[in-house]
Structure formats: structure tokens, C-alpha cells
Amino acid sequence: MGRSERRGLARLMLRYPERREAFRRKAADDPYFLELCDAYEATCEAAEYWARSSEPFAPERTCEYRRLATDVEEDILRKVV
Amino acid sequence: MDADPPSPMAPHPLAEQEVGEAMRSLVAGNALRLSERNRRFLSFVVDETLAGRAGRIKAYAIGVDVFGRGSDFDPGTDPIVRIEATRIRTALAAYYEGAGAQDAIRVLLRPGSYIPEFEFARAASPALPPGADTGGPQADQRAAARTALVVTHRTDRRDRCAVATGELYLQAVVRAAAGQGFRVFVTPPPARRAAAQAIRALLHHPEDVYALDLAVFGIAEGRRCAWSLCDLRSGEFLGSDFVDLVGGEPPEAAGIDRQAASVARRVADAVA
């Protein structure tokens, strides 16, 4: 598991502690799940980057990445149902 | 992320109309779970590929043309394209495990590339008549005679010495494969569109079509000549091997010819 995948998985486990075991099982046998963990980490990092940015369009980007983080979470949760 | 990953197999020459129709139907349907924006993303990369502009498919172009980013778009700080590509890849995998399991044409987005690849469901092989002879070298040649072989030279162009050997290897394999009775096609450079169209047309024919990839690699002892064979429509891997040419520069021509003859025989055996 790559660093970004691990960090994304850790974020998910913090956010959804009741699903930790399901996340662990899925991470062990589903490469697409790990790709989504990587994408989730990239989304959260981008949201944090733009939240700190002073660029004029930073608020718009921040909202976009926060919405996207929710969408990726839904993709992930759908896989562990 | 933008670099094309090296592939051990030839990409499918595209039956453009067939693929285009299948992809339009896929993107327009409800079975594939994608946002409208990601449907545009998938349509964009498919259309660009079918139009022969796969080289234009980069994160920057997708960011600007699909996601409406400005000319200062930086995929490093704005990784929207990479993230959405992952979501599309995951959605396609879920679709092909379920509603799309029987689709005749599949689109793949491999990690590390935004250029789609297309897979064709394996067509049934023509049945042999009762009592047909199925053994021996003559049978191999008859099998080869109704078979098209698409040969692709994949040596890394940055290694000029290996490229030179690779060209010799290619010529020798083409000659030897033709001697085995194959209809041989060599994947042309992009400028030679007529030849590319002829290869695409093969996919409309009932006969079997196979892809033979050749490459020469520089190694410490000399050169490694490698080949791999796959069914062009299904992507099924049928065999591969390599031989190391050790010693002087340039390599001995007779040695290359011997290896080429061996490759052609092995391919004929594999498809017989």
C-alpha cells in the first residue's frame, strides 16, 4: 500500500470508526478500493491547500474539493456496503 | 502521470464506428454510475482517441476542455483530473462486473494514463470440418494461411543502437512469418493512415487476428530480442519469449534471421 493510500484509509477510519473492520477487509483484497483511498487523500489535501490559498478563485476551489471529498466518500462507502 | 506507460502488447487497432457507437451508448445509459461531468470526461478521451488524437490526451487538456480550467491550470495543485479519472475507472470496473458483463466492447482506463483502451469480446473460431487434419507443420501452415498477424515494433526509440537491431529483427520476423503463411501487417507510424485503416479493417473479418509485439532491449551483455503474442480482439495472451544476442556490434545478421525463423515457427504453433 502506498503512502497516499494509507493516509486516505487512515482518514476514512477516523471519520467512520464503526466501519474500520470493513475498510481493512476491503483494503486487503480490492485494488479499486485502495485507488479510491488514494483519490480521497488527494481530494482532502487539495481542499486543505485551497482553503489556505489567497488566490481569488480559492474559495470556489475549496468548495469544489469539499464536495468532491463527499462524493468520493460515497463511492467508498458504496463499496463496503 | 502524463507519460504513456510501456505496454507489452499492441493496443487494438480500433474499429472506430463500432467502438464509437458502443461508447456513446455506454455514456448515454444509466447503468454506468457517473456524474454528468465525468460522462463528458469519458466521452472526451474516447472521442480524441478514436479521432487519432490520443497524443493530445493529457491532464492539462482534460482540465481545460472538460473541467473548464484556465490556461494557468496546474494539475499539481489542482488534481481534479486524476481524482475523477480514478472515480471513472472504479465506476467502469463496477459496471463490467454487473450490468456490462456481457458487453462486446469494453473501455479501460489504466492507472497512470488517461488514454482509453478497448477490449473486444473473443469471437468464436471457425470450426474445422469433420475429419480435418489437425497435426504437423503443414497443418500449422494452413492455420497460418487464414490468419492475419499484426506486428508492432516496440523498442524504446531513445536507445538508438537497440532500435537499429530492432529494425533488423522486425524485418527478419516479418519475412519469416510470411514464410509460415501468415498475412503479415506491420503497425505503421501515425503518418501512414492507409496502412492503419487496413489493420482496423481486419477486425471486421471473420478470420482470426493476432498481435505480435517485438522489442529489442540493451542489456549489459549485448541485446535482448523479445516477442509477445496476443489475440488482437480479446487481448488474450498466447505466448512470449526472448533471446539474448551476445557479442559484437552490429549483431550477426544470420543470428537475427535464425531467431526470426524461430519466432515465426513458435507463433504458427501457438495459433494452429
UniProtKB/TrEMBL annotation, chain A:
<protein>
    <submittedName>
        <fullName>Uncharacterized protein</fullName>
    </submittedName>
</protein>
